[in-house]
Design a protein that fits this description.
Blueprint (H helix, E strand, L loop, with lengths): L12 H14 L6 H15 L4 E3 L5 H12 L3 E9 L5 E9 L1 H8 L29
Antiparallel strand pairs: 1-3, 2-3
Helix pairs in contact: 1-2, 1-4
């Protein structure tokens, strides 16, 4: 019996790489195939066969990469609270692979990714010229 794509709780590295590339493209940020595969390998090295890892095992530069992956929807965060024996509250933060989003992003065609236009950046035209000069 095959598991439906929507209910699957794992991802393949190629699928994750495609999802990262597509997610970055949606944010008008480009990533070549080698970079997205490297990012996918980096993430999978933390998760292994699991879909959840504890945050305190990450180094600051790894956490920065995870935040980028959260921005594109590939990762999510979760928090668990527990009470210690002395009555203090303890929070445990987790990173979770967002498998449904990974599947969705990996199936996107590059034509589906909207390219940024010059109109996107017209907000800078509203800033007076004197704000752009150094004093």
């Amino acid at each position: 019996m095959a598991i439906s794509e929507e209910r699957r709780n794992y991802t393949r590295i190629e699928e994750l790489s495609q999802a990262i590339s597509a997610g970055m493209g949606l944010q008008n940020r480009r990533m070549i195939a080698e970079e997205s595969m490297s990012a996918a390998e980096h993430i999978i090295n933390f998760f292994g066969y699991s879909t959840r890892v504890i945050d305190n095992m990450l180094e600051p530069e790894d956490r920065d990469a995870f935040y980028t992956m959260e921005d594109i929807g590939v990762l999510q965060t979760e928090r668990e609270e527990t009470t210690l024996f002395d009555g203090r509250e303890w929070r445990i933060h987790y990173w979770i692979l967002n498998v449904p989003k990974i599947i969705s992003l990996s199936k996107m065609k590059t034509d589906d990714i909207e390219k940024g236009t010059m109109e996107t950046f017209t907000v800078y035209d509203e800033i007076p010229d004197e704000y752009w000069t150094l004093n």
